[in-house]
Amino acid sequence: MSVESSRSASTPEPGGTPPGAAAESVHHDPVADSDLDPRSPLPARPGPLGMVGNALRGALIGMAELVPGVSGGTVALVTGVYPRLLDSGAHVVDGMRSAVLGPDRRARTAAAFRHVDWWLLLPLAVGMLAMVFTMAGVLKGFVEGSPEIARGLFLGMVAASIAVPLGMARATPGGRNWALGLIFVGGAALAFVLSGLPSGTISGPSYLLVFVAAAVAICALVLPGVSGSYLLLAMGLYAPTLGAVDDRNFAYLGVFALGALVGISLFVKVLDRLLEDFRKPTLIAMAGLMLGSLRALWPWQTEEADILAPGSDWPVVLAAVAAGVVVVVIVLAVERFFAAKAATTDPDPRVTALEDRD
Fold it and tell me: Angle 118-145/238-247 helices, nearest 10 degrees?
């Protein structure tokens, strides 16, 4: 398993282009004509440790989605699975679209789903669901019982994570500094405003509202810097949603899941195309969003999201911030180690899979 942020300057991504190829994209058309060739390279199956690692990554992403102010997309970036996750999501969406629209439906649908990295998606999904259903109450208690320490910990994690998209952007050629600067500031300002929205709780929300809220909040799963939980909090559905998870309210959860499916199906293709055609500006915008989202994680604030001065507990909170930074540094170091090891033994598992087929 690789960390694309650490590899992008030296090795191409699986199925992508060599570094320095400014005119080409690291992503490819989800159902290109070449994908219809049964001999085209497929995602490689990882070993048992790789499967466990993907499940743990999913657990971390699921935990992030439960915490207001922390984006699951940010964790996906830090753990090195973001490009593969987005690419596989685009294949899934395109496969569903090909099943009902366009020519050669059966062949193109099969090709799309054949190129989905199920060895990544399924363990991620298992880890996410396990974390959501086992830790929803615990994290809710931690965030509500020790809000300053919790925010400090997540503040350190997100702040350290900003280096990931910035590093990926530096490894991507092209772009004008003044334009990239404006994009960065614009993204930061947008996230700053969104994270300052007052929050409340809606009692007995309608299923229509739940559907729309889920469609909007799920976009944070693939957009670093925007917290799905915080969006739910701003819309008044954070507590009702966690309560539905704790109470196993499957009617509520079913509507939520349907809205999430619609939302991510519409958004993942847009983001995949942005990363394909405007990779560097998109990465810079992500970094800006992550920076602006730190407002939601400022440890001392009112229930209306008004910023307060540091309290007397600032030494403990500062230690929590430092702990958050250390966690991210350790994760990045581990991912970089395994990326280097994988590059030494098998630089491109998809090419190896194609050679094995031949």
Answer: 110
Q: 60 by DSSP, 3-state: which?
A: helix
Q: Name every residue whose Cβ is closer than 8 Å to that of residue 57 and which is 6 or more positions away in sequence.
A: 75, 76, 79, 81, 123, 124, 127
Q: State whether residue 301 is helix, strand or coil.
A: strand
Q: Provide CB contacts within 8 A for 39, sequence distance 6+.
A: 354, 357, 358
For the chain, the first-to-last Cα distance in angstroms comes to 24
Q: What is the dihedral of CA 171, 175, 177, 178, to 10 degrees?
A: -150
Contact present, 305 and 197 (Cβ < 8 Å)? yes
Q: Check: CB of residue 84 under 8 Å from CB of residue 16.
A: no
pTM for the model stands at 0.66
91-117: pLDDT as tens digits = 788 777 777 776 677 777 888 888 788
Cα–Cα distance, 224 to 248 (Å, whole number): 29
**Residue 302: CB atoms within 10 Å:** 9
Place of tokens 């830790």: 135
Residue pLDDT, tens place only, 238-255 = 778 878 887 788 888 899
Alpha-carbon gap, residue 311 to 301, rounded angstroms:
10
CB 259 within 8 A of CB 225: no
**Cβ pair 194, 226 in contact under 8 A:** yes
DSSP 245-264: HHHT-HHHHHHHHHHHHHHH
Helix (H, G, I), strand (E, B) or coil at 328: helix
Q: For residue 73, give the nearest of 207, 204, 201, 226 by alpha carbon.
A: 226
The total of other beta-carbon atoms located within 10 Å of residue 307's CB is 10
